[in-house]
């Protein structure tokens, strides 16, 4: 899978393991018709404070206040992006990379951008990822349609340690959530093997995957997502040619009358 894509997911995944708190992750990959993709991830870590309140309950009040002040300083709007960057470079990350679901821990994430949205909440983005150059997207042009074939998941050296059912249960009990939506051009026609949920109506171009629940499928090999759009170019070219032919015939008729 594209290193830029897996890198930014790696950071999110690793943060879940490092902080072990109630972290909510919403990830969106938008595949554009030109073969490039934009990825955005919103991380809500406000649950960490709730978790710490329970852990610090038996502390003396002064120590508790100091601990919360440090927590607020690290995850407040002014510093949350710095905290994320520092965590991504920590030695602990190297030890956890093999545990990241879907093989998403096997690369760096230097090209991602971080925007602080609020206290304990940040957004990370990577724009204009060349999916074709990175060999995760193929575009097949038919006479009247375009087919987009996207491959995600892990295989070979990118495979990670599979998340066990016990680990998944523990993650959910701790309030961890990591979901990804993939927005394709046109309408999704096929997902092999079928995982996640395809939207309805205007959302038929979107596949939503729970990355924790589907870690086994992501680790077992590639997930292939196929979508289609109407290819209007042949009709446009045909229309132009037809107009030129008609214009030529009319010109010949007019010249003969003269």
Number of strands: 11
The count of helical stretches stands at 8
Instruction: Tell me what portion of residues adopts beta-strand conformation.
Output: 25-35%
Q: What's the end-to-end separation, in Å?
A: 67 Å
Helical amount among residues, as a percent range?
25-40%
Task: Write a concise keyword list for the protein shown above.
single chain, 258 residues, alpha+beta, seven-stranded mixed beta sheet, four-stranded antiparallel beta sheet, 8 helices, 11 strands, disordered N terminus
Helix and strand layout, with pairings?
Elements: H1 3-19, E1 24-31, E2 36-44, H2 46-55, H3 61-75, H4 80-88, H5 91-96, E3 113-118, E4 121-130, E5 137-141, E6 145-153, H6 165-173, E7 177-183, E8 187-192, E9 197-198, E10 206-210, H7 215-220, E11 222-230, H8 233-257
What does this structure look like?
With 258 residues, the protein is of the alpha+beta class. The protein has one domain (3-254). It has helices at residues 3-19, 46-55, 61-75, 80-88, 91-96, 165-173, 215-220, 233-257, and strands at 24-31, 36-44, 113-118, 121-130, 137-141, 145-153, 177-183, 187-192, 197-198, 206-210, 222-230. A seven-stranded mixed beta sheet has the order 3-4-2-1-7-10-9, with helices on one face. Strand 9 (197-198) and strand 10 form a beta hairpin. The longest helix has 25 residues, at 233-257.
């Amino acid at each position: 899978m594209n290193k830029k894509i897996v890198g930014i997911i790696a950071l999110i995944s690793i943060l879940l393991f490092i902080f072990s708190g109630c972290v909510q992750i919403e990830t969106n990959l938008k595949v554009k018709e030109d073969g490039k993709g934009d990825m955005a991830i919103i991380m809500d870590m406000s649950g960490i404070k709730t978790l710490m309140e329970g852990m610090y309950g038996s502390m003396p009040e002064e120590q508790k206040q100091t601990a919360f002040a440090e927590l607020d300083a690290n995850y407040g709007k002014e510093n949350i992006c710095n905290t994320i960057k520092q965590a991504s470079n920590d030695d602990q990350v190297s030890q956890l990379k093999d545990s990241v679901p879907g093989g998403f821990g096997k690369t760096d994430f230097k090209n991602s951008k971080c925007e602080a949205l609020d206290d304990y909440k940040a957004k990370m983005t990577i724009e204009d990822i060349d999916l074709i150059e990175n060999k995760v997207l193929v575009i097949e042009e038919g006479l009247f349609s375009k087919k987009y074939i996207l491959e995600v998941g892990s295989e070979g050296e990118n495979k990670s340690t599979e998340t066990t059912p016990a680990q998944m249960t523990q993650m959910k009990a701790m309030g961890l959530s990591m979901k990804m939506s993939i927005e394709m051009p046109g309408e999704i026609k096929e997902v092999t093997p079928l995982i996640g949920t395809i939207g309805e109506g205007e959302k038929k171009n979107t596949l939503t995957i729970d990355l924790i629940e589907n870690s086994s499928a992501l680790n077992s090999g590639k997930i292939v997502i196929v979508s289609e759009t109407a290819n209007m170019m042949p009709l446009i070219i045909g229309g132009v040619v037809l107009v030129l032919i008609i214009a030529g015939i009319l010109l010949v008729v007019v010249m003969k009358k003269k």
